[in-house]
Amino acid sequence: MSAMPSFDLFTIGHSNIAPERFVAMLQDAGVNMIADVRSLPASRRFPWFSKEALAARLARAGIGYLPMGDTLGGRPRHDALYRDGVADYEAMASQPEFLCGLDRLSKVTAQARVCLLCAERDPLDCHRCLLVARRLAERGQSVGHILHDGTIAPHAAIEARLLPPGDGAADLFPAGQAERLAAAYRRRARAVAFRRKSAPAAVAETK
Q1: Annotation: CATH topology of 9-199
Q2: Count of CB atoms within 10 A of residue 18's CB?
Q3: Which residue of 9, 90, 150, 165 lies most exposed, with the fewest beta carbons within 10 A?
Q4: Strand 86-87 relative to strand 82-83, pairing
Q5: Rg (alpha carbons) of the chain, rounded to whole number
Q6: 70-84 tens-digit pLDDT
């Protein structure tokens, strides 16, 4: 059996995973700290994934819980970080609070086996991949995405799904590939990022 690739940290989307299996998946990966990057760490459909219940269950399994949705969440608070009502991941990635969040996360990963937590099953449907893991990878960190079948996919393998074969002629220069990938990230983010509801006209006029 080949050895598992070494990762600096992991990500997982809880979706509808049963609680016992969820904990077992983390333990199989050697995770001992969850960094929760949900802006709203609660779930009505699966209440045990809400902040307090989740932290308590993880503690019983010897896994720490660190809420980081305030800096690394996918629902920005400022109007300037939306484009046509959709969260703008590229703008968010340059914000001081986001960069501070990445710095803090890097310090934690130096001391613990960390897994980022959000809700979506597929990494490509979630800001944990399209925003946070992308920027971590750019900083040279190796990210593994824990999938629902228990396998762990390197970020590069998930990223490659953004550029399926046949989407265009092969590029002769790396810069061309980088531009195509950046455009693919942009398209995917526009499709899946948080969309805020339009404010009522009477309220909007007061802003």
Answers
A1: Protein-Tyrosine Phosphatase; Chain A (3.90.190)
A2: 10
A3: 165
A4: antiparallel
A5: 18
A6: 999 999 999 999 999
